[in-house]
User: Fold this.
Amino acid sequence: MRREGPSTGGAAPDGPPASAPASTGVLPLGAPAGVEAPARPTRSRSAAPVVRAAPAAPAAPAAPVAAPAGDLGTAPPGGRHRHPRGSRRPAAVLAAVLVALGLFLLGARVRALPVPLLPLELAVAAGAAAAAALTAVGRLGRPPRDALTGLPGREVLLAAAGRSLRARGSRGPGLLVVDADRFHDVNDALGRAAGDALLRRSALRLRDLAPSGSLVARLDGDAFAVLVPDGARAEALGHEVVARAARPLRAAGVRVPVPVSVGVAVAPGHGGGAADLLRSAEAALERAKRRRGRCCLADGEPRAGAAEQLRLLGELGGAVERGELFVQYQPQVEPVSGALAGAEALVRWDHPRLGVVAPDRFVPLAERSGLVRELTLVVLERALRDVARWRAPGSDVSVSVNVPARLLDDDDLPPLVGAALRRHGLPGGALVLEITETGVVADVRRAGAVVRALRALGCSVAVDDYGTGQSSLRYLTGLEVDELKVDRGFVTAMTTDPARAVIVRSTVQMARELGLRVVAEGVEDEATVRALAALGCHRVQGRHVGEPTGAEEVLRRVAARGDGAQPVGPLRPSAPA
Assistant:
């Protein structure tokens, strides 16, 4: 979860109080023009007494993170980075002089008024205005800093990365994107103040680990970035960050682990521009997040691929509105009788330029962009419309619809599903909602409540792609599910690979003992069907059972099924029903 929030107290981002040691700056890979490391405030002799006479200033934001001596945040050799004073001090002085002159002339005119205005009052007002002008102009060239951690933000990071890429030629920098895993749990359990404290300590830890000359920035919420000058060291640093994050930090009187996932990109192979490099690192982070607590290196896709993904993402929202998405169905049959038992809905995109686009090209984009909810509801509506036709002759076939794990945090999902079932006159038993197992359920307690509400409608809930991630057993014990789908990676080779055969056998046995229905994906031949039937698997799907097809073809197979006693499709039953 992305979150931001100020902490309490502390000095302004420009520097600590005069009595405190100077706060450390952030080492850039060539700081942007006008960047100054936080340090003891400087005042001109003429301005100092005027500032003391000024009215109270607004409350200052939280103090930036102060790094220990020798840390990444310390100033580089040669002293701290300074603004070019000539670019702003004359303007500040000019502004102050103009304000003072205006007030002097005003005082000269109002002396004739019966209300006396003391020269001292006018001088104080002039001084206050001059001080305000000095402060405002002095901050013009300074890039914004995060109020909570004192780190620079995305804008400064991209500017520094761009300069480093231009300066270093073929040997480019490396970029790490670091994101805390399940950080919302900390806020839920300990409160926002404890979460803020942990974010500040996490920022300090990153600065401790980053090599000299690196830039540490806060992107948003619980996401940070580290730009390192030597890209060859980036991946090793990523693994070190993951390992160090396993050590708990103290907050609210308790020791709290803050595990992280890290995505790493290295120029020029993962991007020749700053934005490309950041996108590659974020894509690697997405892969790392699926497995939690990992460091993943970008896969080196050419920048043209990244550009095409951005173009697809921009077109996807319009595709939903223009009706370019359609649904195909892959049959699920009983392995013994071969009778059709259901079908899984698979979304496709009839793209006007690219033709039919497979879901693995655009569904991940929808999940990252926030379109996944709308996309899921489109598929749900069309699947329920079609299954209503299949069941009209008296059939009891069901349809399975994929639901990304993040939607289980949405309390509106059960009412939306219930309304869709009523629109099509269907019982809940006609629908199976498959939770993508490789996804991440952010809040298991809330997800449990959503799953219970869905099951209360009569729907079944399945764990999809079982065995491909770290959440499988947690889903089985933390959520009330009805079905387990064994991933094709184990099923396809189970007749030739003894290890996979053992995994499938133990999974089917465990699921049956838990009272779950078992569906095996990726069935490619009759031998696999026979093996699964012998193990007691309830349903199978795959190319041997039937390729993804349209709703009309499924309706034909339903009609051919009759009372369910005859096998349909390419299957030949290995044993009588």
Remarks:
- Residues 158 and 274 are 6 Å apart (CA to CA).
- DSSP finds 18 helices and 16 strands in the chain.
